Amino acid sequence: MSCPDFELLSAYADQEVSLEERRALEAHLPDCSKCRNQLSQLGLVGKLVCPPLPAEIQINPRPRTRPGWWERLRQLADSPVVHLVTTQRQRRSRFGAAQMAKIAGLFALPAMFMCISPDRSSLTAFLLFSALGLMLGLPLRQFGEEVALLASLQRGRCLEEIVGTGTSAQGLLDGLALQGLLQIGRAALAVWPVLLLGTLGLPLQWQVTAWQLELLWLPGLFGLFLSGYYFAQFLQVWPGGGLQRILVTLLVLSPSVLLLTGLPGAFAAALAIGILARRLAISGLNNPVRPRAVALHKRNPLVRSFSQNPIARREMSRLAGQVGGDWRRLMAWRASMMVLPLAWVLHATAAPYYSWPDVFAIGTVQFCALFFVRSAMRTLPAVVREREQQSWEILLQTRLSLRSFVHGWLQVCLYTVFSEGLLAILALTGYLLALIPSDNWSVAGPALLLLPAASLLGAYVGLAISAASRNARQASQSLMLWSLSGLAGWLTVLGLVRGAISRPASSWGLLAVYSLIPIGLVLAARARWQLRLLPCIDPDEGQQLLPGARYNPILLCLDLASLAGLFYSLKTWEQLREVAEVSAATGSSLLIAAALGWWLLVRMPVASLCEAALGGRINLLMGGILGMLLGESLQMAWKLCPMEIAGFSAETTPVALQFGALVLGIVLGAVAAGKLPISEIRVPILVARLRWTALTLLTGVAASLWVWSLKLPQQPTSSPPPARRGYAQQLSQLYALLPHPELNPSALLVLDEQLPQLGAPQAQDDDHGAGARRYIDLLSMVAKQQARRENWPRTLNTLRWCLMCQAVSPGYLSDGRYFKQEFPIFEDLRECLNRAPLDPAQARGLIGQLMDLHSLQNELRGIYAEYLDPFQALGYAPGLPKWYLERERAALSLAKARADQLIAEGKIRYLTEHGNEELLSDVRYCELTKRQLHNPGLSSMVQSAAREGTWREGLALLVAIKLYRLEHASQWPDNLGQVQSYLPRPVHCYTRADDQFTYRPGFLADGEHSQNLFTEEQIK
Amino acid sequence: MSEALSLALVGPHFRERGSSMSLVERLRSGQAEALQAFIEETQQRAYGLAFSILQDPHQCQDALQDAYLTVLEKIHQLRDEASLRSWFSQILVNRCRQQMRLPAWEEMPERVEPPRCLAEKLDVQAALAQLTPIERTILTLREVMELSYQEIAQVLGIPLGTVRSRLANARARLLQKLSQDGRAAR
Fold first, then answer.
1. Measured between CB atoms, which of B39, B117, B175 is closest to A59?
2. CB-based contact A903:A860 (threshold 8 Å)
3. Domain B23-181 in CATH: superfamily?
4. What is the pLDDT of residues A451-467, one digit of tens each?
5. Which of A981, A918, A991, A919 is nearest to A954 (CA)?
6. Where are the domains of chain B?
7. More exposed terminus of chain A, fewer Cβ within 10 Å: N or C?
8. Inter-chain contact A51–B61, Cβ cutoff 8 Å?
9. Minimal Cβ distance to B47: which of A57, A61, A63
């Protein structure tokens, strides 16, 4: 054997060789002195290696003292990483006092507008989706910074440095979490009071749930932030091993399972995710893995295949660098982040869809707003960043076309927004499928298409604002102002549309959604047009792409005053409605029109004057408005001192003054807008500049004409308007506008307002409306409310409407079946008659309504048609002889004729007492007919109809007696004959079989049946 | 009879009546003198190990303080009493690496400053200082801490074959240096 290598000898010396190696070596060693020598030297090494312990080294470990929770919190807040983040934030000044005020305003404004609406379901939906959007948006926005910081530290190899300097991994993560929590707390505390205040405006039956949800919102937000934050950090340091991959999958899926247990389960899931992710993140930080050097743009397969556009490639690489991991991690994280807000919103919308008709529309609108703002934020740095880095000029000199630049940014923006918003779209679609009835899909489905449209618009607006801004700060301020003013403008337009068509509730939510389309299209087209000028825009020259993007602090007082005024008008709104009896739609339109007018005629001129005083310029529109104001002043002066000017007549002079002042104002405005010397004014220049002014003026004129056409609030006239024919159709239309108002008390108020004073009733009014029965139900609810407020005249009026609707109600369902609903209004009517002061005209009308036999006949015919007509028409026993069936039919016809006769004579009592037998007393009938006529269902229906007739007659008699007393100085009638003259036909229900009448004051008796129609107090 | 079974049969007084408690058990019970005994028993070797990585006596002192404190705090995590030495070695090596702020062995600087203390300016130490840090550490773990190859591989998180080859390499280089100085020949 040749000499073994040194490694084998070394292992042999340590007895770490295999059996075969040992045998071979032991066979070789006795023959080889060199190997024996080496082996003996190996034995020496051990004695040489260990250095002596220096005498000055004293090892005396003392147990570490554990700091308390407060001390630990202070240490966390004082860690160097926190200071680093705080410094970064102070530079950006995010969530300062001004930002908090803006955020609060952003939510307070729509909530305020929705408080105007009598139907509060839209407010509910708004609050719900605002809370949801904030729950999603705030942590996502906040995570970005912390996670990006950790990622950048990791990339720059500084993370290990920080971890090594005594800051433990735990302290690093918790310090960042604490800092983020403080930031998010500031933002949340700006919005939370608005949400809580908005809850006050909700209907009473929703308030308890709403309060619960609002109170759960804050801990939910914090919990979501913490769990999402730790999860994101864990994904940052995640080494990507197989076991960890399974863990991550479990982490992402676990909330979905726990979600089945409802909101507590979801909270538990968030907590579990947070704790587990924190531990994993700490262990990941303590045992770091070297990141593999992969080209940034190759990390994300989507990015790799995305585009050849250099701008898109650059930005996507930057994005991939910020995210730190690959896109799968990002998606996994975002999926888990959706869970808690979804649980929250599912808990909130556990009520069925029909009670929240506007929820989908409002949700779509709010998601549109979210997409808009997010897209705009994404493209906002496009030009501004280049300017700040002083590379814009260089970029313009390259071969990159402007078109590619814009397209690149659009691609980046759409990719980002849809990777973030995919889950939002999925959630909305799921909501659509799960909660909305399928017949509403066709209208709600296309609304989802608005999301990409909003995103595109946001991208364009962001680019435009970026081009017109000097630095990032100015750009973000402009965007904030534009979003706010866009929101206010949209709400105003919506209010106008809603007021103009006076259609509340169900349809306006959808209108709201679709009214966004033209606005979006116009804005996008304008932004596109402006982007052609991109390289020519120089913000330092003051050539603003989007005018009015600056906000002057002087205007703050003005705007505060305007808000106060608006709040005051809201406060007086309810009183106004009580007094003036305006409809809700007209009233809200007036309010919005007033706000708009105030804005145009007071706020904008004053603002312009302020700007002019501060050295700004009066723009074109302001010229026109100031001209109008001047014209008005001239007119007033002319009224004080009328004279004929330059040949104008007395009628035309004011118009001429107005027109002249307007033209003067516009020309001055046009001149001032472009610093154009008067001598250089030419017609083409003026025409070009007046184009927008003309459009504005046309809009103004149309708006003012529309305001003029509105019915102004008036006191109710003394004589009630006559009842309208065909009111049943209007009733059914009204009913269609009030879906499920039993869930919404404010809808009953609408009903109450729209109920005119009833004049002479026209019972023979036609009715084709299917909603009349439903309407009767609502009316009786309204009557109960009025009775509770002891407003007896209005209660009586409402009850008369009930009676009238009942008279024209066809009693048939759409499938042809007879349907009779018991309306327990007679007891209410009696109570009301005893209390209400009676107007003679109204009393006669009421008697006519009560003594109307038409409805009773209709009803009985309906009952017979339901029970007997099938036998008559079809032949119920096919085997029976023909003559027998004809006898049957004849018997049935006779029965019905007899019933009609009894009713025509007013002998309703016979129907009441003897049911159907009385009908057939003198009719020969056979056994089958008899059996059918003794059908218990038929008998009870007939008797119930007869009871109603009895009630009607009794109440008519009561009204007649009251009328008699009214006209005879409160004297009671001696006999019934004295009051008979007030009745259209003799009353039979209170006469005995011998046609004798027993009457004593307070009681109407017919011997066997007596009804106490008066209260004891009235008898005395 | 297994230990668990004998415990179950004899009862909890078995340990007290029987032989005295082992060092690990006394450490677990938090006895200060147990830690002192452990320190006295192991500090010479531990210093050797720490010095092989850090090459600075003051840093060695800090690392040793922390490592012994960690032993006291985490002794309940030790499952197998027999592996106390390798467990302690792992703690000490981790602590030294942490002190050098080095995530991986590959990033350890090849050249370290020569020892400053006069007493350590021996030729052996100079020869040792010329080894790579991983070789020095493996050599110390084997010769001073007397760990098996398997335990060394576990402590350092490297393959078994690497331990064997690096150790042989270290010994060869050390012997070569010393033979150049003529010390090995003596």
1. B39
2. yes
3. PhyR, sigma-like (SL) domain (1.20.140.160)
4. 787 888 888 888 888 88
5. A991
6. 23-181
7. C
8. no
9. A57
